[in-house]
Amino acid sequence: MAFLTSFYAFLFYFAAFVLVAGLARKIIQYARTPAPLKIPTTPAPTTRTGVVFRMMREVVLFESLFRGNKWTWIFGWMFHFGLFLVTLRHLRYFIEPVWFPIQLIQPFGIYGGIAMVLGLIGLWARRFLVDRVKYITAPSDHLILGLLVAIGCTGLLMKFAFHVDVVEIKHFFQGLYSYNIQPLPADPLLLLHLFLVAVLMIIFPYSKLLHAPGLFFSPTRNQVDNPRERRHIAPWARELEQS
Amino acid sequence: MAKATFEVPALTQYTEVPPVTPGAMAHSAPFKSREEFQIPLGFPGELVEDWQTKAIAKMGELLGKYRSLRVYMDACVKCGACTDKCHYFLGTGDPKNMPVGRQDLMRKVYRRYFTLAGKLFPKLVGAEDLTEEVLNDWYSYFHQCSQCRRCSVFCPYGIDTAEISMAAREIMDSIGVGQKYCNEIIGKVYRIGNNLGLPGPALKDTLEGLEEDVYDNTGVRVKYPIDQVGAEILLVTPSADFFAEPHVDGLVGYGKVFHEAGVSWTLSSYASEAANFGMFIGSYANMRRLAQRIREAAIQLKVKRIVFGECGHAWRVAYSFLNTLAGPWDFLDPRYPVPQHICEFTYDLIQQGRLKFDKSENDDKVLTFHDSCNVARASRMGDTPGGQFEIPRAIIRATCNHFYDMDEETIRDRTFCCGGGGGLLTDDLMELRVKGAKPRLDALNNVMQEKGVTHMAAICAICKSQFTKVLPYYGLEMDQIVSLHQLVSNAIVLTPGPDDDEDEDEDEDDMPDLDDPNEEETDEAA
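The joint structure predicted for all components is written out below.
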């Protein structure tokens, strides 16, 4: 019991560290790597504000994917928006007092959980049913989908079938903030759910989940279309001009 | 003409997505470069010793120099949105011609050498060593990408396979595995000034011939000047415009527009090439060296403005990169963008009402317009996004009575590449070029059946050369492709100058025969 609690406390410290440090490392790497040429996919916005709107449409609506493939868009958007609602709902375990908007979102978080799992199943089905998508699928793609589905299903089961003591869970996570380890309920479903979430956090900076920060650094999406008006030159390219 | 050693696909009303056929195009690879073409570009003449280590080191260098490559190697989630977007996949069914399939050829090596997961669990994440077999795949399939960027339109992260193809070609060049077509041509520009290897005197001859021809046809003396110091405008145009049909009809058109605008202009024998094949091989150094020629010519000829002729990838380099590669252009007239596209120039005059057209001159044609990939997705014309679609169409509408667009899903930023772009316009890739043209020609054929379209206008030397060559394979006529400024040339009403006779004299002309371009050279057009 005490061992389990200690193990999970350590696991979440470790996972949080890997997630934050790993992501920070990648983001710094992306930010430091120059983009030597103007390569926005045109038509592209001619102002910074326009680029912010373009990026918002990509992040919130998945605009390009919508144009690319409607099925992938439907399932992908269901999953991501569901995950977003679920994450907001889960904030109640991590903040005290719980902000009013987070209280309001609680029931939607449940629908989000269902949408998330359905979306994932749709995305997974494509990996078997569409020959082109099947061809490009690596074992790790199946594993990540499996991981997310398992996280979603264990979560939903705790909501609808096997309730756990959410107050104790909250105490556990609140305690982690001040290195005050509180007992975690020894519920197998909960332990599995939390373990998988920690795994997800750990693999995030080392997997294709990097698409999340990557999008913001994608030169075809984040560059302003103004090459004739403004001279754009990377530091390493400027050195060529000295010679 | 349509003699093929491979099966030419049948055109369909709408392009269907083929079933995945692994290895369908594994045999396709362009001729390899030789030492004589490699050395002038700064590349080793043959496969270097210890090439794996050197290739990986080069990849590491490029990952640090290009954010695009760095992010795109990591970001792909294998969603599949791009899988049915590449014309080469649609034409061949080879899964390594799916944009993600092509990217993965590099991504698996990236994962193996540059990521923790790939070092620890290569099988799990699809990571692979850079073996000779992988290198051969690279050479084959990174020369089956025309860098048209259609995939990048639909990718949720904007992953542009062109960036990856360019990097792959740069890595291969750096270990001595170059492509003959591109590298030989770049050398020709360094030695002679253009892709076709036309020396100054030959250009002068051609241009004098054009002047006589236009005078014979119109009775108006339109000038086609070259190396004229002090002219206001430097025209930089693909060298195909000097020789091949239908390119040269476009050049005739540019001259007529300049004539009507009343501005002085000149070509340059030193910078007699708009295309910049340095981009195709992903070599910033070579791209810059080629672009610098234009700067030197502009300074030497003391021009005030630079205008580019009809050329797709050239316009990408000109519009998007020229300021970076050869700027700043502070010695030119600041009232005009640098550079300008000939379509922008013509369109402005039309807007000002300064050009008169007799549209009936084009009544023998029903037109459609092919958006060239790099103009559509990698550049702009005019002040507003999308001007690259509207301005050429506005010029066609101003000069022709009959115009119909092709299927919406195959034009503007969703346009299909002609199948010959990105350094693939060479006879040793004929099968690829024919099959890759299918999506575009499906749409063309459809609009021919439904709207009675007879001709397709294009604004790119590669598109024009490619279509001229591949149309006959599909039972269409090679002269169905026209230059946009050919339409302008046909319809424009010229103002006679003081020394022009009003009565056209019908003397037999003694023009050099422009209808007989050197077959092999034509393909080096662009």
